[in-house]
Specification:
The chain has helices spanning about 25-30, 45-55, 70-75, 85-95; strands at about 5, 35-40, 60-65, 80-85, 100. The chain has about 110 residues and is of the alpha/beta class.
Length: about 110
């Protein structure tokens, strides 16, 4: 069964504002490894979709981070993770049964090895 990872954008992804540590190459690696991926951000959903399209990355979801429970309901996965840079990310991740990865602290995920 697949693993699922949700990306915060601002402060987490290199295409965020401010840019974060997670490169598009890392995101593509996660896809190659078979992860179900998408974004859970404060950005408007249409803008999230445009940012993924511009980078040629096909995501399975793009939502507001308070709606992570919907992602959990929609996709069956072995593990659910959300990576972000603030305690708001951690709050919603934990509330909705996701493992929280801190972009400043967690470096050991297989798709991060670039
Ligand atoms: Mg952020």
């Amino acid at each position: 069964m697949a693993r699922l990872i949700s990306f915060d954008m601002d402060g987490t992804l290199e295409i965020g504002d401010p840019p974060g540590r997670i490169t598009m190459a890392m995101v593509r690696r996660a896809l190659e490894l078979g992860y179900i991926i998408g974004s859970a951000s404060d950005k408007p959903v249409p803008l999230q979709k445009i940012m993924w399209e511009r980078n040629g990355i096909e995501v399975s979801f793009a939502i507001h981070k308070q709606n992570l429970d919907g992602v959990r309901a929609q996709f069956e996965a072995e593990t659910y993770q959300h990576i972000g840079d603030t305690n708001i990310d951690e709050h919603y991740a934990v509330m909705h049964g996701f493992e929280y990865l801190d972009v400043a602290r967690d470096f050991d995920e297989p798709w991060m090895l670039d």
